[in-house]
Amino acid sequence: xxxxxTPLAAAGLAALLVLSACSGGDQNAAAGGPITVxxxxxxxxxxxxxxxxxxxxxxxxxKGTKVTEFYLYAEGDRIMGEVENIxxxxxxxxxxxxxxxxxxxxxxxxGMTGDGIRGAFTVTGGAARQADAxxxxxxxxxxxxxxxxxxxxxxxxxxxxxADAVKSGNVDDAKARYAPTRVYYERIEPVAEKFGDLDPxxxxxxxxxxxxxxxxxxxxxxxxxxxxxxQDDTAQVAxxxxxxxxxxxxQAKAIQLTPLDLxxxxxxxxxxxxxxKITGEEEIFSHTDLWDFQANLDGSEAAIQALRPVLAERDPxxxxxxxxxxxxxxxxxxxxxxxxxxxxxxxxxxxQIREFASAVDALxxxxxxxxxxxxx
Amino acid sequence: MxxxxxLIGLREGLEAALVVSILVAFLVKTGRRSALRWVxxxxxxxxxxxxxVGAILTFTTAQLSFEQQELLGGSLSIVAVGxxxxxxxxxxxxxxxxAAELRGKMDEALAVxxxxxLLLSFLAVGREGLETAVFFYAAVQTAQGGTTxxxxxxxxxxxxxVAIAYGLYRGAIRFDLGKFFTITGVLLVFVAxxxxxxxxxxxxxxxxxxxxxxxxxxxxxxxxxTSWYGALLKGVFNYSQQTTVLQAxxxxxxxxxxxxxFLRRPADRTTPVVAGSKE
Lengths: 376, 279
What we know:
The complex is a heterodimer. The N terminus of chain A is likely disordered. Chain A is built from 11 helices and 11 strands. Chain A is elongated and about 75 Å long. By secondary structure, chain A is α+β, with helices and mostly antiparallel strands. Chain A is 52% helix and 17% strand. Chain B is built from 9 helices and 2 strands; from the N terminus they run ααααααβαβαα. Chain B has one domain. In chain B, strands 1-2 form a two-stranded antiparallel ribbon. Chain B is mainly alpha-helical. The longest helix of chain B is centred in the first third of the chain and has 37 residues. In chain B, α1 packs antiparallel against α4.
């Protein structure tokens, strides 16, 4: 965290000195010096709750008995700055560069755990921005590409393990791995769909098979595991799945996405939920649809998170709407958790399914507007 | 008040002292005391630079932006992982060449060179140094205005960390080389995995990597970092009470890849020669 593990190498030090030299100068426009923060074990008293855009300095004194940390969050819990390891009795300074006006939150975290004791903090005016909108869009795709890379690596690893379990004939283990493995696929499915026949080969449902198309991929193994039992060619299908996923992962890492791809992908994932998961069609044999549901939602949220700085600048109202609806769907999903995973689709009541459907629709609507905002 | 500062000092000091003590023990055991003269300048340089930069950051209004700090911290943690990993395998290779030495053939042992020894000790200490320095200054400033307790606690914590590392060094010196090599190597694999996870977490906090709020587990109730055992775990293995999925995956991936590589044949091969009588 902030300075906690900051290692020093010669190069790093040089960079540090250069950076500190050129970003120096306290332009805290909230006249009268730093904003003082008094942190105790149960309170977080901030001397001012507004500041002008620019560099804002907080001076945090820990008057409690536990080690504490102090954060300034932007919307969506994006960390603007933090200082940690403030031992009882100590005072530490934090200077944060806040270029944009908007609603922020301060937080003290006694014991350095949890969400902390939050307080609203408003920044007004505007300061010279270090990055223009195009850089922000560039950052968005970069940060989402990293997400895709991390998810696809995990996908490959988990798929190999799943395939091994299938091939070793260990049906129980394979069944247990099935839904958690698919999570990585479902999170980045819009990316997968960009590669022609890979998505069908990996993820086709039996009901959607076209004339002459082979039934391969996850759902074929799902059927073998849950319904028909292992077949003569099950091992072959498992091998093909690993091969297809390997190809996908290589291609997914090389793909150049545009900001519009992100916005549309976020929406597509929600459509996936509406057409497959809420109807229980996706996991017709295993009934693990809610795992996929959560994964689609995660993936959608990741794309929106990457776009957040741009969206927040152009249409803050839309961002808060999207946030609220994400939260709403998540709350409904959380209610259906069981152990490490979720209840099976067959355990849901008609009312619960209807509730999901309308929450997803409500999220879908503002999400569909994000592409337009990005394209501006 | 005193105790929590003590834990911070212990935690900050432990990791650096651990890596350095293993490095020193290795050099001493393999009869390369001459390379020790490269360890101390590395440590000294790290300490001096940490104190200098800590002073600049504390006493001037100069500031790094949060992202700059995290990007710097995160990437250099990952550089440090590279160095510790190199050290593990260097030790493996060097301990193998000791066998050759016993047969009368002189070593190619310092193949990595004095500069690497210097850089490694520099990184091990420097990684912890800046935060420690900033904390130290904050404690000194507070002491001028009243209480000296945080300062005392902090100093005692660092002293305990050094004492633990020294104890480890004494213990390690007594093992035969095969055993020493296996035990410390395994320990270092876990240390490096922790540093890797922490570095990634820094990058997540800076927003360079996603998934900051996707937690693999939250053990802040069971093993809080502010407890003595949490501080110990954090100092040694970079344990994090709230571990993100990315951190967990990286940690597991590192251990799963490096540990088997490390434990493979060469360790077994050297043991009989050094320990003498196992075959």
